[in-house]
Request: fold
Amino acid sequence: MLISYPILRQDNIHDDEDIYLANVIESALVNTEGRYPISTLTTPQGQVHRWHGGVHLYGGGEPLRAIADGTVVACRFTAARETYEGLGDYDTSFVLLRHETQSGENTTVVFYSLYMHLANQADLAADRLSQLPTWFRNNPGTDVKRPANQRVWRKDVLGFAGQLYGRETCHFEVFMLDADFNRVWHDSGAIAQGTGSDDWFGDAHFVVPAQRDFAASHPRATTQGILIQDAPGTQHDVYFPTPPGVTGRNDEKLYVSVSLHQGRRIATTYREAATGGYEQVGHPVVQDNYEYELYRLSTALYPDCPSAGLEWLRFGRVLGSDTTTRNENWQLVRYSDSAVGYIDLAPNKIVKLSDADFPHWQGWKRSDEGATVNAADGLCDDADVIALAQATGEDAERRLRHMICKAPTEWDDSDLSTRYARMREDGQPLQSDESWGKFQEHVSKMAFWTGAGMTDRSVWHFHPLQFIRHYKMCGWISNNEMAQCFPRELKHLTGRQFVAHTFPWNDALSRSETWGGHFNRANRKYGIDRRKRLVHYFAQVIPETGYLRLMKEGDSKDGKYLKSKPYYPFYGRGLIQLTWGETYKKYGKYRGFPQTEGATSRFSEAGWNPDDLLVSSNTNYNPDNCADSAGYYISSYRGMIKKMDSGISVDDCVAVCRCVNGNVALQNINGLDERLQSVLFIRDVLLDFPADSPSENLHFTWRRNSEQELTVNKKGQSVKGYIAVDWDISVSLMKQRPR
Reply:
């Protein structure tokens, strides 16, 4: 699921989503108005709490952008501002988008995003006006427009913040209709044992009942730690450290959230607070390099099938089809303010969740206004929501951001007399006919609900920035999103010139429909679904497989060509092609493939039959294993994921290329021109850079895929070979979209 914030600035781009979210809130939110989910008005008769389904953002001169791919439901682009007597000018321009994507194999996510109070035509300078989409810019007027089948793409500019009562403001809102909300919502508090949604994403979460046993040490470790690489007869055995714990039991139910970030495992424990809600227990438990060592850890701890073991260690359960006889997951967890210990998180009595289940101790809670006494009006009667909105402190703010509220939309003017009847009572601000008339006119000028064809009067509102932060943790990408990652144009070095080759949208979409599920499952398993890692990975897969077309080395040059290779019959197979018999042997052991499975004399070194279980030809292959073997390669190649995490510069990309091609001289890296161009293109699609330029210059040093030239070998002899050359080329960043 590809989603980003509506305001994108380079200084807000950050790997840590919590920091990113804090920066956006601090720099963009109007502090005094427009809070979610209610706005409070103090009157002589007391406080009136009106539902407010979004937040007010201050653009700071930056454009407001579409947060995800979608279609235009309705819009309005006015020629000038309106005025509400006594309060000031306000803008009624808006864009309403409908988005449909996926958060997993079995979960379609449909939601709406609203950008209200966009700047009008008269207030936009020529340079800003030119940035607006033509379907919006060319149709000014006060009526609601409903463009037919108008697509919008993530990060597209929609407009600029307009005016609301003398302040530069954009009302930003995210909501779902009933059926769409029910499809994604999971009440994690109602899960008493077992697991939550199989469409796992984000962090792993565990609910540990009271009075569970914690051990002082990992049962599979020695005093030195877990042996992850042995060197018999030497002093160079490698151990993963397992810090000592304390034997004991937890007195109360614990809620443990485990995050894997930049290689570290961070386990944070919570408990129910005496004053309500949840509080953190002591400091988080941090283990460095845990994720970077998952392959070696799973190999050491689950020798019969490390593949299944890796899922135990990453997810806390096995999501795939591989199995192991060691159904255990011993982890270091804090169980009191002063004690940590090792506990097996595998038993069924320990609930296993992910962020797909909306963990309730993080604050996720739904509030249905339909369950209150005055459900028909637009005022909030939910005591919990009101109390949270009036509370101060980080905990209250966090819980408020995680509140999902079903309430009447404020953009429907068809029943104003019912919705705001209480505000017309004696002593209330709309008591007089004059004030009521002005209010009706004001609301009607902003309203669009009926004109947009929206029929549900009440919808499920999310804090829009928290919604984005939540789903940005989801690395599953839809077929349409995956198709956009295929570079539309790549320049190949031919002789001394770069010749452009294009790749049509229909071909990209067809490949994505074929590979989407296999690709996503493997990426999730190996943690490659993190965006920066996915940029690097996709940039390697494209040249390795010819746009996911070639699963077997040699293509049409089979027979004599392959038999001439020193590694035959273990030639390249899969998305990142496994090569050499020893590599095949290790992968078979890792997956737990039966050692008698087709192990003819031809494949005796591996002990399993790659033709049957991986690839026999470019039309006969196992797509799940092709994708999994690539993930295995990345995970088992020590340091490769860490290199992916380092950055996306040319040097970072070259470092990842060497992991795939071997540690060869720069000029001998195969297809470096394609790989570097792909990184720039895919970066623009997957990451949050607000790149609006159609191209970018790329400088690199390399020579390959051209005629060889005279060079000098180590003996000082003149021989033909590749030499390093500096190149400057312009990379097209045209979006891979339907044409």
Observations:
- Residues 188-357 form one domain.
- The chain has a mean pLDDT of 90.
